[in-house]
Specification:
Length: 483
């Protein structure tokens, strides 16, 4: 076992907390007044840990690059290693001569298990260890129902969160950081090949996003100082930039819910019902993590086990058409193309395309969840399956299965001027608003004038929504009988 010395380095691990502000592990290390080793471990080997999808890997590269630059300004170097968390951190601590390791907690069950193994391995070597909060407003084990169990319904969960949890003020960015002067081996970001190359499909992501803590703070400021005005109503209008766009920054820990919560109490244009509605969106994220913490197989198993008997279809051709935005329903196609081009999709659109996949096409919600996991820059291990199960009717506090979105009516209601569809489905942009969301009903001369040949330049609807809705309800009846 190593001999402890008051000048032994303190190691700080970065994971889902790629920031310097409101980083309690980093603040605690600073208070030690000892040299600090900062490290990021890319762990795709610990049991049950889900490898990141392509869009998240792109974001991670740029976020780590931004974090590295921020640390370098303070004289610190970010050490990059790849491997199982426990084994890799233990080896790095030994190389650096660290006697203390700090980190901020994670809440995915597989990552909790990896951190538990890491903590045990470090303590076996007589290293001081401590974990801190920061990813969530609440610790998922803290809030319990009157019967002592976890919450299954959002409204009472939200009420309990508001009443029991008083978010702490975010911690300031520590400035007095003592660099570690020793030498330890490190990978380079290029070693990890996180960026797409053949082909490079990330141009739209580069044009849309600025990963990193600075980008997160800028987006929060823009939202609170103008773009969020009228949020309660505007958040559903798909052709407007009425949402915060903070979800990928939260997913990578470039900003914390504590920082957002405090900012909402400050000088902001987001007030009244707009602010309350936005806080509830933060609350829904907390609820999703509460569900995942208590249901480790949330991404692969129905929360409502009655849906295990649901007669899902298997249709790879239909799945591919949905993924490519070639369903023949303009609002669905616009949403799926927005996802592919920018790595993100408007929240209202997410519900529409999920309903279409599960209920119009009859495909399993897991196939949609897996596609979103690979293509979303904000793919979140809790929110992603929770939202898919909510739409499918199999989740906690889920929408009833018979709530089946009509893609035409949804488009007409939430994209009335057609800005969203025209932005991502240019082949039908010349159609007037009246026919934009159902081009198959446009007169032949109008289609010809707009340069549209259905089945050629733009697909005909791959299913008849009315008939698909009836099939879905019949399938659901078989589940109810089995239950």
């Amino acid at each position: 076992m190593p001999t402890k010395n008051e000048r032994d380095p303190v190691m700080v691990l970065f994971r889902h907390d790629l920031r310097l502000s409101d980083n309690l592990a980093l603040c605690a290390a600073t208070e030690k007044n000892r040299p600090i080793v900062t490290a990021f471990i890319l762990d795709e080997q610990s049991e049950g840990v889900r490898p990141l999808g392509g869009a998240r890997r792109w974001w991670l590269h740029h976020s780590l690059s931004a974090l590295t630059a921020d640390l370098q300004k303070r004289g610190l170097k970010l050490v990059l290693r790849r491997g199982p968390m426990a084994e890799t951190v233990t080896a790095l601590a030994e190389e650096a001569g660290a006697s203390t390791v700090y980190w901020n907690r994670r809440y995915d069950p597989a990552e909790i298990a990896a951190d538990t193994d890491m903590k045990a391995a470090l303590r076996e070597r007589d290293l001081e260890t401590e974990s801190f909060s920061g990813h969530l407003l609440h610790e998922p084990w803290r809030l319990k129902t009157g019967s002592g169990g976890p919450y299954r319904v959002f409204t009472p969960f939200w009420r309990a969160l508001v009443e029991a949890v008083h978010p702490r003020p975010p911690a300031d960015r520590p400035e007095n950081l003592t660099p570690f002067e020793g030498k330890v081996a490190t990978d380079t970001l290029e070693d990890w090949h996180l960026l797409p190359t053949k082909p490079d499909w990330a141009k739209g992501l580069r044009d849309t996003w600025t990963p990193g803590e600075t980008g997160a703070q800028r987006r929060l400021t823009e939202f609170l100082q103008g773009r969020g005005d009228g949020y309660k109503a505007r958040r559903d209008v798909m052709g407007e930039a009425g949402t915060s766009g903070l979800s990928p920054h939260l997913a990578h820990g470039e900003i914390t819910p504590f920082q957002i919560w405090q900012a909402l109490d400050g000088d902001t244009d987001l007030a009244g019902e707009d602010a309350r509605t936005f806080r509830k969106e933060i609350g829904w994220r907390e609820f999703c993590w509460h569900l995942l913490f208590h249901n480790p197989k949330f991404a692969t198993e129905n929360f409502n086990r009655d849906f295990d008997a649901f007669p899902w279809q298997r249709d790879d051709k239909a799945l591919r058409a949905w993924q490519r935005g070639q369903t023949g329903y303009p609002v669905v196609d616009a949403a799926m193309r927005q996802l592919w081009q920018t790595g993100w999709m408007h929240n209202r659109a997410r519900m529409i395309v999920a309903s279409f996949l599960v209920k119009d096409l009859g495909l399993h919600w897991r196939q949609g969840e897996e596609w979103f996991w690979d293509t979303l820059v904000d793919a979140d291990p809790a929110s992603n399956p929770a939202n898919w199960q909510w739409v499918a009717g199999s989740g906690a506090d889920a929408a009833p299965f018979f709530r089946i979105f009509n893609p035409v009516l949804q488009g007409e209601k939430f994209d009335p001027k057609g800005n969203y569809v025209r932005g991502f489905v240019p082949e039908i942009e010349a159609l007037p608003d009246k026919h934009l969301h159902q081009p198959w009903k446009a007169p032949a001369e109008m289609l010809d004038k707009a340069g549209i040949k259905l089945g050629d330049t733009y697909p005909r609807p791959m299913v008849d929504h009315k008939a698909a809705r009836e099939r879905a309800l019949e399938a659901y009846k078989s589940v109810k009988k089995a239950g």
